[in-house]
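I am still learning, so would you mind making up any protein sequence you like and the tokens describing how it folds?
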Amino acid sequence: MEEGKPFLLVDVREAWEREAFNIGGLHIPLGDLMGRKQEISTDTPVVLYCEKGIRSTIAIQRLEPLGFNELYNLEGGLSLFKRQS
């Protein structure tokens, strides 16, 4: 974000978590990820996030073998993001 480069933000949390707080982006819960993977660009860097970074790490592990190569995890998830904001 600081560099101004385009990227896609993907929230892999459940809907009730997103309603409570989110930082935007595409919403694809982890359980729906494989069925909706076509919604995620393979040409743009993708930043995945969840509450603590665990589910977004799992999402990255599932997507990498499918040809997604610019995947990034929001380090520490939203928990850390909120504390640093």
Remarks:
- The CA atoms of residues 5 and 45 lie 9 Å apart.
- The chain has a mean pLDDT of 94.
- The longest helix spans residues 54-63.
